[in-house]
C-alpha cells in the first residue's frame, strides 16, 4: 500500500516556485482583461439604430410588395411573356432604391456595433434576408388589406400612411392591349365590364368563351372603335381580384363630386347667359 502511495506521489507534478506577489499579479491581469473587454463590447447606439433601420427596411419591403400586388402589373403576366417588358414600368423603383440603401446602412451599423462576430458580408446578407423574407411574410398576412379597409371605410387620415394606401397602392394598369374588369352585363357575345378604376368597357369576348355576371376577367386584345376585342381571355381569382376594387367607393365619391361640380358650372353658365 505504501508503495502505491509513493508511486502516486512521484507521478504528481511538483509545484513550481512562485513569487511572493503572484496573487497580486493575477488580479491585475484579470482587471486589465475586464477593461479591454468593456472597451470592445457592443456599441448600444449603433445596435439600436441598426435595428430601427432594419425595421424600416422590413416595412419598406412590405410596402413595395403590396404596391406591386395592388397596381395590377402581375395580371399582365397571366398572358405569359407578351407583356413582360411593360411590367417593369409598374415596378416602384422609387421605393426599392431607398429600401436597399436603408438596409445597407443598417448592415454597416450592425457591423460597427460588434453585436455579431461575423464578417461584414455575412451581416449584409443576413440583413437583406431578414428584411426580404420578413417583408414578404408581412405582406402575406392580410394586414395591408385591413389597413386599407379601415382608411377608406372610416375615412381616417394618417400622415404618409393614408397617402400610400389611398394613392399609391391602387390599380393603375392602363394598357392599350389589356383590359380587366368585373362582368356587369352580357349580350350576344359582348360583355360590359367595370374596371377597378370604375370605368365601364364594352368588350367582345374571344370566340367560344363564355362568362357569367359577377366574374372578374382579363383580356388581351385591341381597341376597335370603342369596343375592346379580346383575342385571349382568362379568369381572375375572385378573392385576389376583389382587392383591386377596395378603392371603388372612394373613386365613386370623387366621380360624383366632379359631376356635381360640372353640373354646377353648367347651371351657373346658363344663369349667366339668360341674364
Specify Rg, calculated over alpha carbons. Answer: 34 Å
End-to-end separation in angstroms reads 136 Å
The mean pLDDT is: 82
**Total of DSSP H or I helical runs spanning 4+ residues:** 11
The biggest sheet amounts to:
5 strands, mixed, barrel
Share in β-strands: 5-15%
Instruction: Encode the helix/strand succession as letters.
Output: HHHHHHHHHEEEEEHH
Give unreliable regions as ranges: 251-265
**What is the topology, as strand order, of the major beta sheet?**
1-2-3-5-4
Q: What is the helix content?
A: 55-70%
Overall number of strands: 5
Q: What coarse outline follows from CA principal-axis ratios?
A: elongated
Which structural class fits the helix and strand makeup?
alpha+beta
Structure description:
Helices cover 56% and strands 14% of the residues. The protein is built from eleven helices and five strands, in the order αααααααααβββββαα. The chain has helices at 2-11, 22-39, 44-70, 73-76, 84-87, 93-112, 120-139, 143-153, 161-168, 238-242, 248-274; strands at 178-187, 190-194, 200-204, 216-224, 227-235. The chain has a five-stranded mixed barrel. Mean pLDDT is 82; it is low at 251-265.
Amino acid at each position: 500500500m505504501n508503495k502505491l502511495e509513493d508511486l502516486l506521489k512521484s507521478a504528481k507534478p511538483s509545484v513550481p516556485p512562485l513569487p511572493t506577489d503572484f496573487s497580486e499579479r493575477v488580479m491585475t491581469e484579470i482587471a486589465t482583461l475586464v477593461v479591454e473587454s468593456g472597451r470592445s463590447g457592443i456599441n448600444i447606439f449603433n445596435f439600436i439604430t441598426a435595428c430601427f433601420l432594419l425595421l424600416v427596411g422590413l416595412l419598406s419591403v412590405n410596402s413595395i410588395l403590396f404596391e406591386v400586388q395592388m397596381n395590377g402589373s402581375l395580371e399582365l403576366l397571366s398572358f405569359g411573356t407578351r407583356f413582360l417588358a411593360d411590367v417593369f414600368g409598374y415596378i416602384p423603383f422609387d421605393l426599392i432604391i431607398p429600401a436597399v440603401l436603408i438596409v445597407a446602412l443598417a448592415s454597416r451599423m450592425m457591423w460597427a456595433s460588434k453585436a455579431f462576430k461575423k464578417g461584414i458580408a455575412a451581416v449584409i446578407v443576413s440583413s437583406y434576408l431578414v428584411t426580404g423574407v420578413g417583408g414578404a411574410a408581412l405582406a402575406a398576412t392580410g394586414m395591408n388589406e385591413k389597413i386599407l379597409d379601415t382608411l377608406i371605410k372610416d375615412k381616417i387620415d394618417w400622415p404618409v400612411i393614408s397617402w400610400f394606401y389611398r394613392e399609391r397602392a391602387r390599380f393603375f394598369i392602363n394598357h392599350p392591349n389589356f383590359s380587366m374588369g368585373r362582368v356587369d352585363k352580357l349580350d350576344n357575345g359582348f360583355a360590359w365590364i367595370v374596371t377597378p378604376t370604375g370605368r365601364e368597357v364594352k368588350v367582345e369576348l374571344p370566340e367560344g368563351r363564355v362568362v357569367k355576371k359577377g366574374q372578374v376577367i382579363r383580356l388581351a386584345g385591341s381597341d376597335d372603335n370603342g369596343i375592346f376585342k379580346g383575342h385571349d381571355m382568362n379568369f381572375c381569382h375572385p378573392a385576389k381580384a376583389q382587392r383591386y376594387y377596395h378603392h371603388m367607393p372612394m373613386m365613386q365619391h370623387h366621380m360624383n363630386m366632379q359631376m356635381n361640380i360640372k353640373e354646377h358650372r353648367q347651371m351657373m353658365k346658363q344663369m349667366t347667359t339668360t341674364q
